[in-house]
Each structure stands twice: as structure tokens, then as C-alpha cells.
Amino acid sequence: MSPVSHGTSERRDGDTWRLHFAPHLAHAYEAVWPALTTADGLRGWLAEAEVLERHLGGAVALRWLNGPGTAVTGHVTAWDVERVAEYTVTEHGRIRFHLEPLGTDSTLIRFLNERHGSEADRLDCLAGWHEHFLLLESYLSGTPADWPAWTDTRWSTLRAQYAAHAPA
Length: 168
Known about the structure:
Distance between the termini: 25 Å
Helix content: 25-40%
CATH architecture: 2-Layer Sandwich
CATH topology: Alpha-D-Glucose-1,6-Bisphosphate, Chain A, domain 4
Largest sheet: 9 strands, antiparallel
Shape: globular
Order of helices and strands: EEEHHEEEEEEHH
Structural class: alpha+beta
Number of domains: 1
Strand content: 35-45%
């Protein structure tokens, strides 16, 4: 069974969406935390951290390595060491990771992405985050993302699944 189940979403005011995931990873939170909060960790599954000041109010600049290399900037808007990391950035809005250790060798991530966008953006982002969490599991298991070889095949399949089964 995949550690990443389908995410959910809810519409807030106007064009604001809240996307939720809760991946349950078979890795201790001491391993998961640096994957979410260090430049090396983020590069292995999400984005190049061109700037990452690891404290509340710190600057963040991320460049996605899949696709056209979208760059975003913003700030750390919540920081509780080994528990909560939240980045609020242009285009992607608020990105929050809340870690819950489950025993000594398992971690639940309560993930929230609050962002503006259309229905198409919602589906794109649900598929995108789902794929990134699959990449996180691979990274934590010793296989970082091979960005030059990345294709949108899995993302396209996930997006079609969300379009068919993930009501707003």
C-alpha cells in the first residue's frame, strides 16, 4: 500500500483552496524533518532551495525542478523545530508541514497548502503534491528524484484520477 493516499481539498472564500494530505511514512521524524527543512533535503524530492533561512520570518526562495522550473519567493511563517515548518511563497501560497512521530520509526505529516486558483489549478496542485510526496518516500528510502529524467507521466495519471474522483 502506498504511504500517500489521495489528498482532499476544500474551497474557502472565492478562489482560495485548502489542499490536505496526510502521508504516513515508515521513517523516523528525525529523518523526515531535514527532508522538509534543508536545502539538500528539499532538492531530493521537491525543489531547489536557493534561499532557506531556517527560522520564523526567514527568507525562502524555491525553484521547482520538474517542468519549467517555476521560482517562488516568500518567508518562513511558522517554525517549531522537528514539528512544524511553514513556508508562505508567491504562487503556491501557504505550505505547511506538521510532523507527528508514530513510535520511533514512523511519521505522519499533516500537510496543508492554502492557495488561490481555479478549479484546474486545484487539480494540478493535488496531483503535483501527491507526486511530490511519492518522491519524498523514495528520497527517504535512498533514491532522490532524478530531475533531468523527470516526466509528467505519473502526474498526468494522478491528475486524471483527481479530476474523476476528487470533488471540491
